[in-house]
């Protein structure tokens, strides 16, 4: 590029120089103006203007940037402060829960406890948010409570304490389930009576806090646990909810969930099913029925000479015939695989149901 400037440009620059020099003291650029505008190489003007942008302490954008940075810094401090408060609250809550747990466990082993006061304390804790109830129940050990104290407490609790449904289930599971699982001999009459008395007030917490958790893994239970399961199922006060819930075939933890007895049924499982199907309950849920029949079919294929499996089939046909009318062909195909003395009676009952079904259609 030529170092010569257009006359008009030179005149314009001289005018700018004169104007800037009037304010040289304010801007403090006098020396820079003389150096730049007095130079032969006017390409340095661009560099000078860039320096001017960097050095000027009065440019308008700087306060905006400073404000933005300060705002971000303040936000971070507030967030850190809030996080610290939340963490402190969490730690304090955990300390309080630990104190509650320790206090209740001390009361549990005290044979001379005030049952009403203990019920009040437990009721208060069970009314906390469910997440805290879970933490508390995980820390309690009712297996250390003397049997007579256990009986008195739960009778008092069932009659006089009202707590949220899910919390009640959690408490029953914490107190009864652990004690039942620890049994190595037949349960005492007092303990069985405590279960039934507690259930007579509200039966669903016993079903979903004790019975179904035991049913979820029948491979691990023994005769003492089987005794409790069968006694619960046989009780009339459970008639409307127990059998239909237990006879379902999927895993779960809520009232609406279905429970699974396993693919390969052992003797204890089969004995439980005999008790269940001796009761009258609805099997009109087709998915439930098909699932159960599928598992029954699998086990009969594995054990065709098992008399107890044949007994389940006979109970299914005689006590629940109305519910299986639409699946008689499938039921017949399963019955054909049985190899016991009950097979003839079973097939005759299926034929009776088929004729009954034809009469209904006609």
Characterise the protein shown here:
This protein has helices spanning 7-22, 24-27, 30-37, 44-55, 61-108, 115-126, 130-139, 147-160, 165-181, 189-201, 204-215, 223-234, 242-246, 267-277, 286-302, 307-319, 328-335, 343-361. Helix 7 (130-139) runs parallel beside helix 9 and helix 17 packs antiparallel against helix 18 (343-361). It has 18 helices and no strands. The chain has 3 domains: 1-41, no CATH class; 115-246, Serine Threonine Protein Phosphatase 5, Tetratricopeptide repeat (Alpha Horseshoe); 280-362, no CATH class. The relative contact order is 0.04. The model is unreliable at 1-5 and 249-260 (pLDDT under 50). With 362 residues, it is mainly alpha-helical. Keywords: Coiled coil. Residues 80-107 form a coiled coil. This is 9382_t:CDS:1.
Q: Could you name the key traits of this structure?
A:
362 residues; mainly alpha; Serine Threonine Protein Phosphatase 5, Tetratricopeptide repeat; 18 helices; flat; 9382_t:CDS:1; FANCE; coiled coil
């Amino acid at each position: 590029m030529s170092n010569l400037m257009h006359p008009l440009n030179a005149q314009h620059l001289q005018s700018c120089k004169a104007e800037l020099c009037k304010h040289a003291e304010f801007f403090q650029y006098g020396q820079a103006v003389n150096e730049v505008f007095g130079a032969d190489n006017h390409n340095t003007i661009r560099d000078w203007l860039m320096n001017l942008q960097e050095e000027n302490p009065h440019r308008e954008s700087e306060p905006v940037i400073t404000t933005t940075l300060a705002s971000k810094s303040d936000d971070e401090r507030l967030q850190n402060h809030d996080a610290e408060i939340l963490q402190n609250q969490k730690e304090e809550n955990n300390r309080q829960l630990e104190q509650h747990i320790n206090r209740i466990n001390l009361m549990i082993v005290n044979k001379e406890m005030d049952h009403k006061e203990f019920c009040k304390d437990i009721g208060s804790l069970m009314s906390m948010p469910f997440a805290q109830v879970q933490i508390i129940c995980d820390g309690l050990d009712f297996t250390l409570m003397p049997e007579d104290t256990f009986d008195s407490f739960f009778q008092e609790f069932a009659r006089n304490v009202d707590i949220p449904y899910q919390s009640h289930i959690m408490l029953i599971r914490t107190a009864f389930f652990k004690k039942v699982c620890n049994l190595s001999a037949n349960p005492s009459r007092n303990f069985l009576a405590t279960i039934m008395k507690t259930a007579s007030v509200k039966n669903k917490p016993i079903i979903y806090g004790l019975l179904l958790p035991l049913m979820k893994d029948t491979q691990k239970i023994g005769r003492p646990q089987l005794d409790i399961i069968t006694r619960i199922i046989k009780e009339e006060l459970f008639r409307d909810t127990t059998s239909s819930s237990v006879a379902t075939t999927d895993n779960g933890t809520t009232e609406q969930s279905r429970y699974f007895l396993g693919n390969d049924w052992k003797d204890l499982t089969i004995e439980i099913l005999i008790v269940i199907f001796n009761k009258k309950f609805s099997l009109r849920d087709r998915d439930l029925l098909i699932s159960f029949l599928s598992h029954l079919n699998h086990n009969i294929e594995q054990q065709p000479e098992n008399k107890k499996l044949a007994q389940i089939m006979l109970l299914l046909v005689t006590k629940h015939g109305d519910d299986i009318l639409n699946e008689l062909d499938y039921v017949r195909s399963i019955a054909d695989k049985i190899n016991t003395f009950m097979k003839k009676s079973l097939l005759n009952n299926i034929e009776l149901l088929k004729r009954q079904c034809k009469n209904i259609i006609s």
